[in-house]
C-alpha cells in the first residue's frame, strides 16, 4: 500500500499492508489530520517501513476478529500512535467511533488527538462554570477545541493568540476576551489550558487565582520554562501546574465529540485541507503557525 513516511521530509513509500491483531479492525483511510507533535517531535529512530500518523477517518474493511467494534462498511474515526498516514491502518476497536452520516470523514479526521486532548484537559480543570479560564495557543488545533469546550462548560474564556490575525474567529467560538500573550492579561484566572509552554506558561502561572491550576498540555514554543516561584508565591497562594497527557482509549470521547459536531455544537476548525500529495506543504504551514486550527489531508 501507499504511505507517507519521513525520509527525512514527507515522502511516499510502498509498505506492506498492516496485519490486524484480534482486537483491531482494518480501516481504509479516507482522510487524516496533522498534529504539531507528530511533525515537530518526529523520531529518527524508527524501523524500516514505519508509518507515522495518529488521526485518521475512513471505512472498516474488516471487523476485529474478537467480535468487538463496528462491522465492515462502517464509517469510523480512529486514533493510534502510528499508522494513520497510509491507505490502510489497523486500530484497536477501543480507539475508534462510528461517524454519523451528517459528519464528513475529513471533518471527523480533525478530531482525535486535538479534540480529545482539549476535552480531557477541560474535564481535569473541574468545575469551571462562571470561572475565568485562559487558553494559550488558542489559534491552534488543541486551542480552538479548548476554547469551544471550556465555553460550553460555562467558563469565561480568555483566548491568547500571537496576533490579531491569528485570533480571528475565536470570539465566534466562545472566547469572551482575546489577549495577545498571557503577559497582556488583566487580573487573574482560575484555570489555564497551556499549549505553548516557555515564557507563556510562566506568565500564565503568575496570573493564577489562589487555588488556580495550569494544565501543562504542550510546548509549541519549544522553549524551556523558567518560573520564579517566589514571585508567583506573592500572587497566588496555592496555584499549581499539572502535567497533562492525553489518555487512551479514545473511543468514548470521540463518540462524544462526534455527537457535538453532528448537532452543530462544535466546529472542527479545519484551517487547511488538501490532497495527500500536498501534505508536506500542510506540515510546513502548521509549524510556521499559518494554519488556523487543523490541517486535514484527503487520500
Ligand atoms: N500533552 C498532550 O497529551 C498533548 C496532546 C496534544 C498536543 N500536545 C501539545 O500541545 C501543543 C499544541 O498542539 P496543537 O496540535 O494545538 O499545535 P498547533 O495547532 O500547531 O498550535 C500551537 C499554537 O501554539 C502557538 N505558538 C506559540 N509559539 C509558537 C511557536 N514558537 N511555534 C509554534 N506555535 C507557537 C501558535 O499560536 P500563535 O501563532 O497564535 O501564537 C499555535 O497556534 C503542542 O506542543 C503539542 O505537542 C500535547
From TrEMBL:
Organismal lineage: Bacteria, Bacillati, Actinomycetota, Actinomycetes, Streptosporangiales
Source organism, top-level taxon: Bacteria
Biological source species: Actinomadura fulvescens
Domain Enoyl reductase (ER): 5-297
Keywords: NADP, Oxidoreductase
Gene3D superfamilies listed in its UniProt record: Medium-chain alcohol dehydrogenases, catalytic domain, NAD(P)-binding Rossmann-like Domain
One Pfam family per UniProt: ADH_zinc_N
Protein name per Swiss-Prot or TrEMBL: Zinc-binding dehydrogenase
Amino acid at each position: 500500500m501507499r504511505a507517507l513516511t519521513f525520509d527525512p521530509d514527507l515522502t511516499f513509500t510502498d509498505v506492506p499492508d498492516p496485519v490486524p491483531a484480534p482486537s483491531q479492525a482494518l480501516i481504509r483511510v479516507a482522510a487524516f489530520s496533522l498534529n504539531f507533535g507528530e511533525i515537530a517531535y518526529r523520531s529518527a529512530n524508527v524501523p524500516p517501513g514505519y508509518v507515522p500518523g495518529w488521526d485518521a477517518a475512513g471505512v472498516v474493511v474488516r471487523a476485529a476478529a474478537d467480535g468487538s467494534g463496528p462491522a465492515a462498511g462502517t464509517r469510523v474515526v480512529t486514533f493510534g500512535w502510528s499508522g494513520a498516514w497510509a491507505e490502510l491502518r489497523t486500530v484497536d476497536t477501543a480507539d475508534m467511533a462510528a461517524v454519523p452520516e451528517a459528519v464528513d470523514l475529513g471533518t471527523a479526521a480533525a478530531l482525535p488527538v486535538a479534540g480529545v486532548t482539549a476535552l480531557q484537559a477541560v474535564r481535569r480543570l473541574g468545575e469551571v462554570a462562571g470561572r475565568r479560564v485562559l487558553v494559550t495557543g488558542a489559534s491552534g488545533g488543541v486551542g480552538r477545541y479548548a476554547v469551544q469546550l471550556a465555553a460550553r462548560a460555562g467558563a469565561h474564556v480568555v483566548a491568547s493568540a500571537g496576533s490579531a490575525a491569528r485570533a480571528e474567529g475565536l470570539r465566534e467560538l466562545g472566547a469572551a476576551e482575546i489577549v495577545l500573550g498571557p503577559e497582556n492579561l488583566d487580573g487573574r484566572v482560575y484555570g489555564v489550558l497551556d499549549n505553548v509552554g516557555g515564557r507563556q506558561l510562566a506568565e500564565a502561572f503568575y496570573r493564577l487565582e489562589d487555588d488556580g491550576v495550569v494544565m501543562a498540555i504542550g510546548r509549541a514554543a519549544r522553549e524551556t520554562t523558567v518560573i520564579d516561584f517566589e514571585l508567583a508565591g506573592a500572587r497566588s497562594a496555592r496555584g499549581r501546574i499539572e502535567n497533562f497527557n492525553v489518555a487512551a482509549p479514545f473511543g468514548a470521547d470521540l463518540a462524544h465529540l462526534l455527537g457535538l459536531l453532528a448537532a452543530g455544537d462544535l466546529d472542527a476548525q479545519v484551517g487547511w485541507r488538501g490532497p495527500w500529495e500536498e501534505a508536506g506543504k500542510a506540515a510546513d504551514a502548521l509549524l510556521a503557525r499559518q494554519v488556523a486550527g487543523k490541517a486535514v489531508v484527503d487520500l
